[in-house]
Specification:
With about 300 residues, this protein is an alpha/beta fold. Helices cover about 30% and strands about 20% of the residues. The strands form 2 sheets. The protein has a 7-stranded mixed beta sheet with strand order 3-2-1-4-5-9-8, with helices on both faces.
């Protein structure tokens, strides 16, 4: 089976540095990403039946584009949402009584943008991403900052996290619409199920999603919504809110945008209790007032959920 179809470091139980709560199968690999697999700049696209579940063609190319990973930090540096989301995460963790020294699962951690901030605040971080290069960059930054003993990088498809033990992390974060990069509602729900399973009772999930109806305010957005709606009625592999778009040299980047009702339904179905939902502005710079009009014009939502 392809390495990308499963967690590449099989961690049925694991530890994060000296604070370990479980034992990792191979502790020599604990603070290292998997060995370099010679990723090419643009790998040959596999047939649909060979791609990992939930990974769209454009996403497959995205995670294998080394240049995207190498320039990712600079690309998002001025994005307002990347400043706001860490404020939300810090507040939600503080409200849960865990402002430091927790084990946090970062789903779609990328090059460690959120993970590094969590490490600076004293947390242990399990970072999951399908991009080998993104994980390498995060590890390099963590080592340089002296955080190596509190880092567990895991190359895996978010849909297939069977390798993580039940109740093995305190909290989880999934930022910058990483959940929306998963194709297929059943697959997105599977991500949420795995996250609920591996989070301890009382733990929180802090999640960001893009808002489906924000497309109305974008050039060509109404047409995009119409195509998505029609596709969802005529094709079994399309959900209302799916779209593909050009992104950093890729022609078919995939993103699913959620309605507020949809993400709430998916969270409840997978065992989460919704604590709070924050609507954010179209440019991602601020939290909006809690009104019906604000929800309609929201660019996205932060949802804070807990496990009973």
């Amino acid at each position: 089976m392809s390495q990308n179809r499963r967690c590449s470091s099989v961690a049925s139980e694991f530890t994060c540095g000296a604070r370990g709560v479980r034992l990792y199968e191979d502790e020599t690999k604990l603070n290292q990403p998997p060995a370099n697999d010679q990723q090419s700049a643009s790998p040959q696209r596999p047939p649909a039946w060979r791609r990992p579940p939930g990974v769209a063609p454009g996403t497959w190319e995205y995670v294998h584009q080394r240049s995207i990973a190498d320039h990712y930090d600079a690309f998002v540096a001025d994005t307002p949402l990347c400043r706001l989301d860490m404020e939300i995460v810090e507040r939600a963790l503080g409200d849960a009584g865990d402002s430091t020294n927790s084990t946090i699962l970062d789903l779609g951690c990328g090059s460690g943008r959120i993970a590094m901030e969590l490490l600076r605040r004293g947390h242990h971080v399990v970072g999951v991403d399908l991009s080998q290069r993104m994980l390498e960059l995060w590890v390099e930054k963590s080592v340089a900052a002296g955080f190596a003993q509190r880092v567990l990088p895991l190359r895996a498809n978010l849909v297939e996290l069977q390798c993580l033990a039940d109740a093995s992390v305190d909290h989880a974060v999934c930022m910058f619409s990483s959940l929306g990069m998963i194709q297929g509602r059943a697959n997105r729900r599977q991500v949420l199920r795995h996250t609920q399973r591996v989070t301890r009772a009382g733990g929180r999930l802090i999640l960001h999603v893009h808002h489906r109806w924000a497309a109305i305010w974008e050039p060509g957005g109404i047409g995009s919504l119409s195509r998505s709606g029609w596709g969802s009625m005529t094709r079994r592999d399309v959900d209302f809110g799916d779209s593909t778009y050009a992104y950093r040299g890729l022609s078919q980047m995939f993103l699913h945008r959620f309605s507020r009702r949809e993400i709430h339904a998916d969270l409840r179905l997978t065992g989460w209790t919704i604590d709070n939902t924050l609507a954010i502005s179209l440019d991602g710079s601020r939290v909006l007032e809690s009104t019906l009009a604000a929800r309609f014009r929201a660019g996205g939502f932060f949802v804070i959920a807990s496990k009973a």
